[in-house]
Amino acid sequence: MIRLLNRLQDLLDSLRVFDFLAPLAIRLYLAPIFWMAGTKKLADMDSTIAWFGNPDWGLGLPYPEIMAWAAALTETLGAVLLVVGLAVRWWSVPLMVTMVVAIVTVHWPNGWSAIAEGSGPFATERTIGAIERLQRAKEILQTYGNYDWLTEKGTFVVLNNGIEFAVTYLIMLLTLFFYGAGRWFSLDYWIARRFREPRS
User: Are 184 and 20 a contacting pair, CB within 8 Å?
Assistant: First the structure.
């Protein structure tokens, strides 16, 4: 039995030849997310700066111009670097900082769930109330709208905007910080192979 288990473990270990796929997949998953977030900010920096600085309807951050430009450029450049796999461990740090700022300033008051849930371990009074409103909205649409057409491509949900997605991205960036961009499909790998001196 032990011999069989050892052979199975050896088989599993032999699959590590494909370990470059995991960081590559994470990089290619995160790149469009940061690209869209960064370029959206850059497209209207006046509104972005106002949102960063306004304490009433925005984030109320200090130095909103600096913070807005830093976030927008970090996300946009970070997306490009993730795609090509350049300076991934280094650049994951400022990207993690943007995620922590987003978690604390934007998403934290909304709880965990990204989409409002009426039950389950992460349901709150806020999400339960949202589900009640969603049900009422569906009833209105079923009565006065073409509900079948409206839901043909998907169902309606209420965006709760909790920390769920931002924490997921943070964990993925933390993985890249420790494991790097991966072999073969990253500039980091080829640069290190050419210039990095072996550790003694």
Answer: yes
| Alpha carbons 176 and 20: distance in angstroms, whole number | 12
The SS3 of residue 147 is helix
Domain boundaries, the chain: 21-54+63-109+165-200, 115-160
Sign of the C-alpha dihedral computed for residues 178, 30, 57 and 44 taken in this order? positive
Residue with tokens 């200090």: 62
Q: Residue 11 corresponds to which amino acid?
A: L
Statement: the pTM of the whole predicted model exceeds 0.85: yes
Residues lower than pLDDT 70 in the chain: 200
Find out whether 92 and 176 touch, Cβ atoms under 8 Å. Answer: yes
The reported pLDDT for the residue numbered 196 is: 87
